[in-house]
Amino acid sequence: EVQLAESGGGLVQAGDSLRLSCAASGFTFNDYAIAWFRQAPGKDREDVSCIKISDSGTWYEADVEGRFTIFKDGVKSTVYLQMNNLKPEDTAVYYCAAEYIHSYYGYGLKWGCSEYEYTYWGQGTQVTVSS
């Protein structure tokens, strides 16, 4: 069973940093892409960043590029989102999601991580940034 467990959220001030963790279990880590999404109150869910585990290809949403870094630990089957210089507009529930890259009739192997439709989701972790 695919399981994703987020941790690391909290209440911080603008300009501070947080590191979110997404611990994955129940699947072969290298066969998946992992993404971080967020949803603020009253807003649609948006994708923030992702990483394709097999080739470490990454993608960032424009508003976080240069401030957030996504990286993996293959030994721990964990993906991290290092968030620096946090802003109040970063306040949201952050979710990690996973997608099997061997789906899509084999074409998915060549895709970037931002092209997948993510199937498996964690429960989310709250990030609150005060001004």
The coarse silhouette is globular
Radius of gyration: 14 Å
**Share of β-strand residues:** over 45%
Tell me the number of strands: 11
Tally of separate helices:
0
Q: Kindly state the percentage of residues in helix.
A: under 10%
Low-confidence stretches: none
Query: What structural category arises from helix and sheet content?
Result: mainly beta
What is the overall pLDDT average? Answer: 96
Main pleated sheet: 7 strands, mixed
H/E series: EEEEEEEEEEE
Give the oligomeric state of the chains in this entry, treating copies of one chain as homo and distinct chains as hetero.
single chain
Beginning-to-end CA distance, first to last residue: 40 Å
Describe it for me?
The protein is an all-beta fold. The protein has no helices and eleven strands. It has strands spanning 3-7, 10-13, 18-25, 32-39, 46-52, 57-60, 68-73, 78-83, 92-100, 120-121, 125-130.
List keywords for this structure.
131 residues, 0% helix, single chain, four-stranded antiparallel β-sheet, mainly beta, seven-stranded mixed β-sheet, globular
Task: Give the helices and strands, then pairings.
Blueprint: E1 3-7, E2 10-13, E3 18-25, E4 32-39, E5 46-52, E6 57-60, E7 68-73, E8 78-83, E9 92-100, E10 120-121, E11 125-130
Parallel strand pairs: 2-11
Antiparallel strand pairs: 1-3, 3-8, 4-5, 4-9, 5-6, 7-8, 9-10, 9-11
Brief overview:
With 131 residues, the chain is mainly β. The chain is 0% helix and 50% strand. The strands form 2 sheets. Strands 2, 4, 5, 6, 9, 10 and 11 form a 7-stranded mixed beta sheet that branches. It has a 4-stranded antiparallel beta sheet with strand order 1-3-8-7, with no helix packed on it.
